[in-house]
């Protein structure tokens, strides 16, 4: 047993309190994720205006739409997919975004689905671009390259919040014994950090490689979708399945099943990009 194994004993998921309002590390990490994604996107617009011919003011408006779509989609997606009492929320819709418990205490909004956020993001992007669809793929590519590093902070937030814990480390796993974290007297994989590396850092490198070697609008979001799906599928082997969900056919988790569906969506975007890429280039 090393100091890293018991790191959860050394810190509190609550960063600080403002009166009765407790500010969690996860909330701060999520705020950092938004700022980083926004900054990277602006840098890309400045450095590569030919690939991203978007004015800053125009992007700022789009970013608000995208972020709203992500938050709404992530929360509603969690309720529909993971929440065991989803019927209650569907009949008390206002409770989905209620940050207070039944006693009036501020607890924040808990339970977000990445794949639900993805659906919300795509819907928001389409609605924003519907009057000028030739820019839709440009917006999607811009988010594809700015999102992964922001995502890293989101998963670090999950780690600091001591949620989405990993599977129990087998006793014969030497590496697992070194990197594992004690949770409820069980040594578990730090799945949140594994996801941060695979789904954040590795996917970012994939998208950057695609940016260097491709010129067609829409391919960056396709590479992101396929890359994320693969990395998430792998990471799920280290992440404890949601207790209310368990595993399904072939022992796949819900996260793995949704990642396979994400592959289909990515291929659909690829077909759309291939069909419309010439038109997009002509309108630049």
TrEMBL record:
Annotated localization: Cell membrane
Top-level taxon: Bacteria
InterPro entries listed in its UniProt record: Lgt
Record-level GO cellular component terms: plasma membrane
Membrane topology type: Multi-pass membrane protein
Example GO molecular function: phosphatidylglycerol-prolipoprotein diacylglyceryl transferase activity
Pathway where this protein functions: Protein modification; lipoprotein biosynthesis (diacylglyceryl transfer)
Annotated binding of a 1,2-diacyl-sn-glycero-3-phospho-(1'-sn-glycerol), by residue: 155
The EC number(s) this enzyme carries: 2.5.1.145
The protein's name in its UniProt record: Phosphatidylglycerol--prolipoprotein diacylglyceryl transferase
Organism this protein belongs to: Helicobacter pylori UM114
Lineage, uppermost ranks: Bacteria, Pseudomonadati, Campylobacterota, Epsilonproteobacteria, Campylobacterales
